[in-house]
Amino acid sequence: MRFDIVTIFPAFFAGPLDYGIVRRARESGLVEVSVHDLRDFTHDRHRTVDDRPFGGGEGMVLKPEPLFEAVESVLGAAAPAAIVPSLANSGAGPSAAFRASNDARATKSAASAPPTPADTTAVILLSASGKLFRQSVAQRLAGLERIVLLCGRYEGVDERVAEHLATDEISIGDFVLSGGELAAALVMDAVTRLLPGALGNEASAIEESFSARGDSATPDRTTRGESVTADRIALSGETARAAHGRETESAPAAEPLLLDYPHYTRPAEFRGWPIPETLLSGNHEEIRRWRRQMALEKTRRNRPDLLSSAT
């Protein structure tokens, strides 16, 4: 897995990259991380990455040019304008002709072609306006070969980045940050820990919060292509979104997503508070049932929305 981070504050990542599971994954060669300064892709002496919004309003907006050039440089791919020569008048996405030609190519090659870079690469815009980042999204991303993280900043990012460059627009919660750097570090950590070999115990990625009990949270990467050929990368948002299965994310899960069950360790009694006797019983089936019941109760108490969304 390779992460490419595009930011105006590259020094920010010295901390997140040098500690914990991401550091261990880097040292073992499981992941590779490259941080790119967005200002390196500007062409004026002030290295300008933002400008005033059309139509007026407060704040500054990140310009599309340096972000497009950064991604094209990182991936070594042709410009989206070359891949999508004409857009619909609404500006909402690729033209009908492009969709038709792309569908034809997909039909022709689906039976025998190896995975394309559109299947194995994601370009993610971190944005308060994006879809909510959930464990299911982390699991999907962990099955890819490469992830480019675009860190938003200021009042926002030119919408053409979300429409025609990013394959995903992701928010880490219903709040606003001053920039996407913290969000990028969070996504990188959540995805890295799902990679085979990242955790000392693979079961740790299964029996935890937001994991459907009984389903493996570790992605199957054995059928993925071994390399990413730059000249075949489809940066069109519509094409890559479909390739990444966005439409299936809202499908109801067979099992509710639960918060993790309570954990206890020694001493068995602390300040008069003993641990539940069930955990001392040695009866693994009884412990399993207790843990599931406690997970249900904790989810009902702290995140009832998770239960209602599964019905």
Number of distinct helices: 12
Q: Averaged pLDDT, please?
A: 77
Radius of gyration: 22 Å
- What kind of sheet is the major sheet? 5 strands, parallel
**CATH fold description of the largest domain:** Alpha/beta knot
> In the CATH hierarchy, what is the superfamily of the largest domain?
SPOUT methyltransferase, trefoil knot domain
Distance between the termini: 35 Å
- Based on Cα principal axes, name the global outline: elongated
- Strand line-up of the largest beta sheet: 2-1-6-5-8
How many domains would you count in the coordinates?
Answer: 2
Beta content comes to 15-25%
Q: Mind telling me the CATH class of the largest domain?
A: Alpha Beta
Range of helix content:
25-40%
Quaternary structure of the protein:
single chain
User: Helix and strand string, N-terminal first?
Assistant: EHHEEEHHHHEHEEHEHEHEEEHH
CATH architecture of the largest domain: 3-Layer(aba) Sandwich
Number-wise, the strands total 12
As residue ranges, the low-confidence spans are 78-113, 214-253
- Structural class call reads alpha/beta
Summarize this structure as a short list of keywords or feature phrases.
single chain; alpha/beta; 12 strands; about 15% strand; 5-stranded parallel β-sheet; Trp Operon Repressor, Chain A; about 300 residues; Alpha/beta knot
Short description:
The protein has helices spanning 14-17, 20-27, 64-75, 80-83, 96-109, 117-120, 135-142, 159-164, 181-192, 237-243, 284-302, 304-308; strands at residues 2-7, 32-37, 50-51, 61-62, 121-132, 146-151, 156-157, 168-171, 211-212, 257-258, 269-270, 273-274. It is an alpha/beta fold. Helix 7 packs across helix 9 (181-192).
